[in-house]
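The following block was generated as part of the benchmark described in Methods. Ligand: 2'-O-acetyl adenosine-5-diphosphoribose.
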Amino acid sequence: MKQYHRIFILTGAGISAESGLATFRSANGLWNNHKVEDVASIEGFERNPALVHDFYNDLKKEVQGVEPNAAHLAITKLQQNYDAEVNVITQNVDTLHEKAGNQNVYHIHGQINQAVCLNCGHVLETWGDVDTETVCPHCQVMGMMKPNIVFFGENLLCMDTVERLLRQSDLFISIGTSGVVYPAAGFVQTAKYYGADTVEFTLEPTANNFLFDKHIYGKAGEMLPQFVEELLAI
Ligand code: OAD
């Protein structure tokens, strides 16, 4: 272990698993009840916006009922005690990083507590239900709100910042992501190209596991706090 100056933490569904939220590609994952093309694609939303709104309204309620776990809290500890800039780039639409007190959180796949107006671009923050009759508080047009979730076929959010951080970071940590959904799955390659050390935390080897210098297999809530202690001990 050496002293790092800028740390890039990429998180996926696995970091929230110990909080009780299902991952995407596990046996009880999201896709079992709904086909991905129905609830996470622009075409699916155009076909049946009411179903998509219902789906994310339900997920919103589920997310509100769960708490951050030891892995989220380990990131807070790292940010508060380690002399480096620590950025959290998450694919998760839950808000457990924020609930745990994490700073510098970038939601590249959107956030469950937001909806965006397809008419004027206004982003509405709400934990209440949004549906096909919701009126945009900015342009007053009804029925144009879409969950602010990045669907397949849409661009990721915050990419200017992400690309800069990938070039500037000297440690890249991936936590709980299977490495199959691009472009996020390609971030490690860019970080490595620009010289970062790379570490991944998952339950089992991932699709892009050859790009990591170090693999830590096991529950993030158990393994990440230990790793943070090792960083803090330098
Ligand atoms: P996946 O469900 O594909 O992968 C979850 C990963 O977390 C796997 O590698 C598991 O081994 C690991 N994992 C599970 N429990 C864990 C634990 N307790 N500790 C550590 N690791 C654990 O989820 P993502 O990679 O996040 O996009 O999926 C990427 C994207 O696919 C999602 O953001 C979503 C979906 O399309 C959108 O919704 C836009």
